[in-house]
Design brief:
Length: 367
Amino acid sequence: MVNLVESKPLMTQAEYAKKLRPLLPPEAFQPDNNYVLILGINLAILILGWGIADSLDRWNWYFLWLYLPLALIMGNSVIVALFSTHNIMHSATIKKPQLKQAIVLLGLTMLWMPPTLWKAVHNREHHNNTNSFQDPDRNYLEEQPKNWGKWIQNKFVPSAEVNPILLTIGMAHSWGVHAFRNLSSVFLFNNGTTKYPVFSFTVSPQERRAIGWELLLAIAIHSSILIFLDFHPIKLLLGYFLPIWIGYSGAMFYIYTNHMLCQMTAINDPLINSISLRVPKIFDVLHLNFSYHTEHHIFPGMNSDYYPMVQELLLTHYGDRFNLLDVGKVWQLMLQTPRHYRDETTFTDWTGEKSVPCPLSVNRQEG
């Protein structure tokens, strides 16, 4: 197979931004206070849901199904809490550092993600090293040890080999694995040599202390919810676990499709190492245009309302490089390919017996 890096030279995120920024209106880069409002509304939905869940022990059992639509709405609020907080942390929406830290802590608590860790793993490591060897969010490499972290990805992440039942379980729990994998690595060891994360990075002593305090506050908030629900099985199942499972599944659906089907790149080229999805408009409205993921990697701090404008520019100027696919097609391709990297443009399975070219690389070369 022809090596894509040789056949079509990679470009950097800065090169795309330099060309496209003058073509966009200045207001696209102004802070958007609506993110805070959206986060507040969805936190209020969660609180309302827990308030109603506290009465579930007084419902006749044959009426419990009436809570399921609210659990679905609460699950969506978990997704929106992540995405709105994600946008707040990329932007200058909140000027005061302490206020910003308090707000993003509330936004990420349901995800068990200390904001200081998110800033390190996502803003710093992932965005600067997207789908490269140094990216903690990429697929595992074939050459990496077969430890518990790699085993979980192999068993529960969408691939040609995954069991449908394990995939369903994984959708609801893989976010927790991702958070625990990186949290334990930096909080317990912080030496850059732990083997079970996809890539082991380090944080400063000050960041490490902040992560510890933020984790304690998250534990206190979750414990308060459990106490409020009286540790009652029905209340916990429908009012706590089910919304979390729905929310984590929705978030992981986006996260899986953002990069894991792409080739690795030594140079951070967002048009090669990222995917933007075509999804029904309702999901872009609900989820702050998170499907415009390549656009986000070019302009991380941009108002997400303007991502469709960036997409039009990408189609005009870089249509032959741009990974823009229907969401169903991306999911189908993920279920047809293995999930470990043999090299930058080739996937393999747990046994190393398969060797499957990255389908996006093949399509681009043929085009």
